[in-house]
């Protein structure tokens, strides 16, 4: 069988794109031996000269501009798009689920007791707009208000880095305190942290901050270290490679979205705070956070807070929006999801690490929450 030649039009300058590439490489090593062409490319660049003359068997591309879209549309070969821009709507599109990213971001911030929320985005990008919309909806459905800041495009006429920083500084200063801020991605969150340090705004006590992409080097370099949503970029890359392989093999793949939910949240110091005024419920949340995967139940919580079960559940539901039992289960299921995706542990080993007596009990709880059994979830993600 002839070795297939595949080009990757994906930049390598950010963590999300690098994880996409790692997923593609993972698929190639497991399933096919492709000849891969990965030239240097930066985001938003003009179409490279090689693309117009490419005569390979397939292409996986982040089609970020209309100019690149026009060139790609003329190629006589299978193409899979891994950009949220959707400039070529009739080809397969593989992306992270931005609505899910925003919703788990809100839950992460809400469970820390915040009632003031804000979003900082870049409206020139679809993924930022989708995250903003879903985050606002989640905030408003919970009965709160969401302040929004739109960064201006660096390509806009009259753009100035200093003026843009001044705008953001004024916006941050205007926010009520304490406030939980969701930044559209880690680089934007880093900019906010820099301003907070200059303005002597305490993070996370006055302003808790959450980014997206979990760029570990960037997050750990931030002061304080930045909490971040972990998108399923690796799984997205694997799926893009699988779809391209099917297309090169003669299969028809509809031009529809294939979206992957985020893996979870890497919690670091920028959100490691509880803004709950009710000290008993705050203590209950801390206990659940620290011990959820040790097989605890509501009776264990009652040993640590001076409340009756009825009062605990009533106040917990009013403040957190869930019962204590639901919160324990949610945290355990989140941990199971992470271990299924990120490790090679067996289902039985994961059950022990998340506080279940055996894998049958864990599988029932996981299926009830996620609508699929653990094994199927692992295969799909």
From TrEMBL:
InterPro entries assigned to the protein according to its UniProt record, in alphabetical order: Homeodomain-like_sf (IPR009057), HTH_AraC (IPR018060), LacI/GalR-like_sensor (IPR046335), Peripla_BP_I (IPR028082), XylR_PBP1 (IPR054031)
Lineage of the species this protein comes from: Bacteria, Pseudomonadati, Planctomycetota, Planctomycetia, Pirellulales
Boundaries of every HTH araC/xylS-type domain copy: 282-380
Name of the gene this protein is made from: xylR_5
GO molecular function, one term: DNA-binding transcription factor activity
Keywords: DNA-binding, Transcription, Transcription regulation
Protein name: Xylose operon regulatory protein
Entry-linked PROSITE patterns: HTH_ARAC_FAMILY_2
Pfam families in alphabetical order: HTH_18, PBP1_XylR, Peripla_BP_3
Keyword DNA-binding applies: yes
